[in-house]
Design a protein that fits this description.
By secondary structure, this protein is α/β, with parallel strands linked by helices. It contains 26 helices and 14 strands. Helix 4 (111-121) packs across helix 7 (182-197) and helix 16 packs across helix 17.
Length: 785
């Protein structure tokens, strides 16, 4: 019998014409804002719950915070104070520069100033600055034992490993050092605590500096801000006074040294030196200096002429008369003979090149020009030799002149050495005497000015323009703002958790994903069927007295029934009145899946029942001999013989073929378990069975085990006219489904499409379409899919 061939017509592959799958490929990395918003809207209740769970403790912590008060004083740099007398200060006034303001800001932030403020205000007695007794925690003994253990291991290891295992030393502030330095540790702690509450803010394009102090007590904040400004001004006055005192002491100690130096190197020593050397004050420099200068100029000129002549001589010695290019850079001193010979040589060379290019190098026309060029080269060589001999004579003459000038210059140097040496010593003594007199006079003048400055009151370069006042209200923490920020942060965390949870889901959720990820048309979307409704017939058979309207495999009142009817219509399994009754025979349809538990058997029974209600002759074959379940849903229990006995020849087709009277579906159970069911399923008996059943029935449905678990389905796939691949909604990973589909295609199975089973109707509607149907009515799969 020829097996019937069934192909899905165009546009009927299980999805509506014009539907577009999600972007895959180059556009897959683009962010779909609308789909992202839909995803977040679906997760709104988990997001709100996590946000509330995180935000409530944060609000409690924010409300428990102690309010802080802030007070500010403003100082301005005034580098032009009024002066009673016009005497320059030892320390110069501040300049009006940006670096000056930044420097004063760092001084206000210094630990020295903070320490003075702490001592002035006695902050150690303030409640918020008092030291709290640190109680050891519950894990303190374990931490101490761990430190001791690491120290012991480090001492037994080599130096590099010992340094890695040895625990770091304790901070100095946690232990009271010996020698009575506990007060220093307490002072350092108070300074650190005060600096944390101190804010120094320079003005924008101004000389003003704002000093702000935060404290729990508003009066303490105002007193601290004013004390910082006053201490800063006092430090500046103190620095000026100390600089003046140090300068006065230093000048006083230097006066005696300057007086002794002036006596030792005074004008008496200068006059004694003049009398000793015979030099008269105001006399001009000796004539020997002028003569030496003239000889030096002549010697430099002679050396330059010698160098030029020697360079020309070296150039001409490298010239080759036969090579015109070697004469291009040579200095011939403007010799007209050599210049004419060079021009003639260039003309002959050009002529020879032209004749050589025209006639060749062996043509008689080249003989005469070649002879003339050789004679010309010989003449040029003779003239160059003449010029070289002349240059050699000139070089020897210049050498003799240089030697003569050098001898005369050495003689003059010997004669004038004593005179020059005496003059140098005299000038040096004169400079020392002038410097000593000047230093002594300036030191005396500056000492008197410094003594006057000590008697005057020092004026600082900074003044307070705004004293700190007690704050009327707290400045922080901003509980409303912090609560809002906490809500935003908690919402962001909750949103991130929801997105991570959504992205970590690997299942297939919509028909778009079926088409994009699996490469198959989504021929059906079947909703989840409850456990009680799914087990309509138990081992003892179905309850025939039950109301037929409650049977999930019959009628049209449920979403499940509508979905199965729609699947039959899309697969063209329901014959309409316009279709002819005669056909080539029944169609063999195999249902399989990737793994167990995807609702494949329930779908097989439902599909058979609905086709039987439509008047089709249907037979179901349970090909899962390892875990047979079809007999629990169809028939009156597990029959004594089934498919394995039929294929092994131990039973006939009529003996294993049973009819479910309630659903009018023929059933062949799996039969007894065998060791190798693949051998029976791949035998000729199985093919003959399918051919015979195709002649008797309109539709033959095969319920096969999962593809990735055993190979039974792969053996039966080529025998079926169509393979329907069942994928459990939101549970089966797309990678598993892709692997199973690939194996079915490799063995030649004709996959007609994929079916999403056990779908949650409400969640699927939001995932697939992102909206409810018009009118606000809840989503039903039969209205949209």
């Amino acid at each position: 019998m020829e097996a019937p061939e069934h192909r899905l017509p165009p546009g009927a592959a299980g999805f509506a014409s014009g539907s577009v799958a999600p972007p895959v490929g180059s556009g897959a990395d683009k962010v779909d804002v609308k789909r992202l918003a839909q995803t977040l809207w679906r997760q709104k209740w988990p997001i709100l719950g996590i946000t509330a769970l995180l935000w409530l403790p944060a609000v409690l912590l924010i409300n428990a915070m102690t309010p802080l008060y802030s007070s500010s004083s403003v100082v301005v740099i005034d580098p032009h104070p009024n002066r009673v007398i016009n005497i320059p200060s030892v320390s110069e006034p501040m300049g009006i520069y940006l670096d000056t303001v930044n420097t004063e800001v760092e001084i206000l932030r210094s630990r020295d100033l903070a320490r003075r403020v702490v001592e002035t205000l006695n902050l150690g007695q303030e409640p918020e600055y008092m030291a709290t007794d640190a109680k050891p925690g519950l894990l303190a003994p374990l931490m101490e034992e761990g430190r001791a253990l690491l120290a012991g291991l480090g001492s037994a290891l080599p130096e590099p490993l010992a340094g890695l295992l040895t625990p770091p030393p304790r901070p100095a502030s946690t232990l009271a050092p010996p020698g009575g330095s506990a007060g220093e540790v307490e002072s350092a702690r108070l300074v650190d605590a005060f600096q944390k509450n101190l804010r120094i803010s320079p003005g924008v394009q101004s000389r003003a500096i704002r000093i702000s102090v935060e404290a729990r007590d508003p009066q303490l904040a105002a007193r601290a801000a004013n004390t910082v400004a006053q201490t800063y001004i006092a430090m500046q006055v103190e620095a000026k006074r100390n600089a003046t005192l140090q300068a006065s002491d230093w000048l006083q100690s230097r006066l005696d040294e300057l007086r002794q130096d002036m006596t030792a190197t005074g004008r008496a020593a200068v006059e004694a030196m003049r009398s000793e050397t015979g030099m008269v004050k105001g006399r001009d420099a000796p004539l020997v200096n002028e003569e030496m200068s003239a000889l030096n100029a002549q010697l430099a000129e002679a050396r330059s002429a010698h160098a030029n002549a020697q360079a020309r001589l070296r150039q001409l010695q490298t010239v080759r008369p036969g090579n015109p290019e070697s004469l291009s850079g040579a200095d011939i001193g403007g010799d007209p003979i050599i210049t004419g010979l060079r021009q003639r040589q260039a003309a002959l060379s050009a002529l020879l090149a032209e004749l050589n290019a025209q006639y060749g190098d062996r043509h008689p026309a080249l003989t005469r020009p070649s002879a003339e060029l050789r004679e010309l080269n010989a003449t040029l060589s003779t003239e160059i030799d003449r010029v070289v001999r002349g240059l050699r004579g000139e070089v020897e003459q210049q050498v003799a002149r240089i030697q003569d000038l050098t001898r005369r210059l050495e003689g003059l140097r010997t004669d004038s050495f004593d005179t020059l040496q005496g003059e140098v010593r005299l000038r040096e003594l004169q400079r020392q005497a002038d410097a000593s007199d000047d230093n002594y006079r300036r030191a005396v003048t500056r000492l008197k000015e410094t003594q006057v400055l000590q008697a005057l009151e020092m004026t600082p370069d900074v003044r307070i323009v705004s004293a700190a006042a007690v704050s009327a209200g707290p400045v922080g923490p901003g509980k409303t703002v912090m609560a809002g920020l906490a809500a935003i942060v908690c919402g962001a965390i909750a949103t991130g958790i929801a997105l991570v949870r959504t992205m970590s889901q690997r299942g297939v959720y919509s028909s778009h994903q079926v088409e994009a990820l699996l490469g198959l048309p989504a021929v059906g979307i079947v909703p989840l069927l409850g456990r009680a409704r799914r087990s309509g017939g138990g081992a003892g058979g179905p309850d025939k007295s039950r109301n037929p309207a409650r049977d999930p495999y019959a009628g049209t009142g449920s979403d499940f029934a509508e979905a199965v009817w729609r699947l039959c219509a899309r697969l063209h399994l329901v014959r309409t009145g316009a279709e002819p009754t005669a056909g080539k025979g029944g169609e063999v349809i195999m249902l399989t899946s990737s793994v167990a538990g995807e609702g494949k058997t329930t779908l097989v029974v439902a599909l058979a029942a609905f086709l039987a209600d439509a008047g089709r002759r249907v037979v179901v074959i349970d090909c899962d001999t390892r875990r047979p379940t079809v007999h629990r849903l169809l028939g009156d229990g597990r029959p004594p013989k089934g498919l394995t006995e039929l294929l092994a020849g131990d039973a006939t087709l009529d003996q294993v073929l049973h009819l479910d009277d309630r659903r009018r579906v023929a059933v062949i159970a799996a039969g007894s378990p065998v060791d190798r069911p693949q051998t029976l399923l791949g035998s000729k008996a199985m093919l003959s069975l399918l051919v015979e059943l195709s002649e008797r029935y309109d539709v033959v449905i095969l319920d096969t085990p999962p593809v990735l678990s055993v190979s039974d389905a792969l053996i039966l796939a080529p025998l079926a006219d169509r393979v329907l691949y069942v994928v459990r909604w939101a549970r089966t990973a797309s990678s598993l489904a892709t692997a199973g589909i690939k194996q079915v295609r490799q063995v030649g199975g004709r996959i007609g499409g994929a079916i999403l089973s056990m779908v949650s109707a409400r969640e699927h509607a939001s995932l697939e379409y992102g909206a409810r149907p018009p009118g606000g009515r809840s989503y039903r799969l039969r209205r949209i899919a």
